[in-house]
């Protein structure tokens, strides 16, 4: 396949890329062509997007149970645990993953981390079938002990999932039975990560409660044990409600420990602030302050079409746009926000980003726009997604009375 007229950010010039039948980048600018030719019309090439926080195992299960009428995380989690997870067989998971993998793929996501409950061995089911979908996406699995390590036999179940190959140890300290158990769960998770040589990613401080301070405890433990760069803190929505002195102290610890923070602005905006009267808090991690303070911040989709969030489609550019909107970013910062779903995401997942060079496997996306600014502004799915021999082409065009105005409405802030 030849992809012509591709804009590279590295030199701001137009190039062509020839991908051979094995799905390798055979040459750049050699203008060799046989088979498919795609004209990118000057659109920007980018590394594939990363979705660093998701729940693929129960995505698209909205209609498996009654609707979440309160809209709270607590009701969503309860419906998921009691009514949805027990219904998920390997076959059901396979059917949904077939759709989910394509949804991720057409949105340019080739790498995704998913938190899978250890209840009903959902994490193990995911580990067993994920290889069937690697042509399109790579799935990294977190052994997720929801609603806590001290619930039933979750400690043993989590260990079993790690033995079966889960790359990441999960935790959810604010959801444990007590504050003491929350702190103990941090010790359990870090012990497991050291014992099995795994990464850590916890649902931590996913509340509006300013006294929920498990992020500090996890970052401190990771720093002391020298595993900060292998540790991620997902959500940290309580940081929205911390006083500024405490947040500043926490920020320094996060920076020094090397932990990543993964925020999920779309779903957190939906779930948090539910117990407030007006004015309602936004309830998201302080993305902007964390980024400015030198912390590695990645942005995830979290739930899609389930009891916790009933909408969603894995469009990561919309996630970025939401982060911009909800945390008061400004125009000069728009382009840099793309790092949340590219380099910062890869860093959180401890994955080396694909390189766009001759001799490498073809793993790249071409956006609908000629620059990241317009791509984030329009939040359209990529024009072209390539993973080796597999590709998706989404050639958006806007017509007014048969006159093509696509270029005029997409490429505005070049
Ligand atoms: Zn989550």
From TrEMBL:
Q: Per its UniProt record, what InterPro entries does this chain match?
A: Amidohydro_3, Metal-dep_hydrolase_composite, Metal_Hydrolase, Metallo-hydrolase_Enzymes
Indicate whether Hydrolase appears among the record's keywords.
yes
> Which one of the record's GO molecular function terms can you name?
hydrolase activity, acting on carbon-nitrogen (but not peptide) bonds, in cyclic amidines
Q: What residue ranges are annotated as transmembrane?
A: none
Which intervals hold domain Amidohydrolase?
Answer: 186-370
Q: Does the keyword Hydrolase apply?
A: yes
Give the record's keywords alphabetically: Hydrolase, Metal-binding
Under the heading SUPFAM superfamilies, the entry gives: Metallo-dependent hydrolases (SSF51556)
Q: What is this protein called?
A: Amidohydrolase
């Amino acid at each position: 396949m030849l992809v012509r007229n591709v804009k590279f950010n590295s030199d701001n010039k137009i190039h062509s890329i020839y991908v051979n039948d094995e799905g390798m980048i055979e040459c750049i600018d050699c203008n060799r062509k046989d088979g498919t030719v795609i004209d990118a019309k000057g659109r920007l090439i980018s590394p594939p997007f990363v979705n660093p926080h998701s729940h693929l195992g129960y995505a698209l299960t909205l209609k498996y149970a009654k609707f979440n009428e309160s809209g709270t995380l607590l009701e969503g989690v309860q419906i998921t645990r009691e009514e949805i997870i027990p219904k998920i067989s390997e076959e059901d998971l396979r059917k949904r993953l077939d759709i989910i993998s394509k949804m991720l793929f057409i949105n340019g996501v080739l790498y995704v981390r998913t938190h899978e409950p250890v209840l009903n061995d959902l994490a193990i089911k995911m580990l067993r079938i994920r290889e069937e979908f690697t042509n399109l996406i790579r799935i990294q699995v977190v052994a997720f002990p929801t609603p806590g390590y001290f619930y039933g036999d979750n400690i043993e179940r989590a260990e079993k999932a790690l033995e079966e190959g889960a790359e990441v140890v999960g935790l959810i300290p604010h959801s444990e039975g007590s504050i003491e158990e929350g702190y103990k769960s941090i010790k359990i998770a870090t012990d497991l990560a050291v014992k099995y040589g795994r990464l850590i990613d916890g649902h931590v401080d996913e509340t509006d409660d300013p006294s929920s301070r498990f992020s500090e405890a996890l970052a401190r433990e990771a720093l002391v044990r020298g595993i900060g760069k292998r540790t991620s803190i997902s959500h940290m929505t309580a940081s929205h409600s911390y006083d500024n002195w405490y947040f500043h102290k926490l920020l320094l610890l996060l920076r020094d420990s090397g932990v990543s923070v993964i925020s999920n602005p779309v779903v957190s905006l939906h779930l948090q602030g539910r117990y407030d009267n007006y004015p309602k808090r936004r309830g998201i991690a302080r993305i902007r302050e964390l980024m400015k303070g030198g912390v590695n911040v990645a942005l995830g989709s979290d739930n899609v079409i389930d009891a916790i969030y009933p909408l969603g489609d894995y469009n990561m550019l919309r996630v970025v746009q939401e982060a911009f909107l909800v945390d008061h970013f400004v125009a000069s910062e728009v382009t840099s926000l793309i790092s949340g779903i590219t380099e910062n995401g890869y860093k959180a997942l401890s994955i080396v980003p694909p390189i766009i060079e001759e001799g490498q496997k073809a793993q790249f996306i071409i956006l609908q726009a000629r620059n990241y600014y317009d791509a984030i502004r329009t939040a359209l799915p990529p024009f072209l997604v390539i993973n080796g021999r597999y590709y998706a082409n989404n050639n958006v065009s806007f017509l007014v009375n048969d006159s093509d105005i696509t270029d005029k409405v997409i490429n505005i802030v070049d």
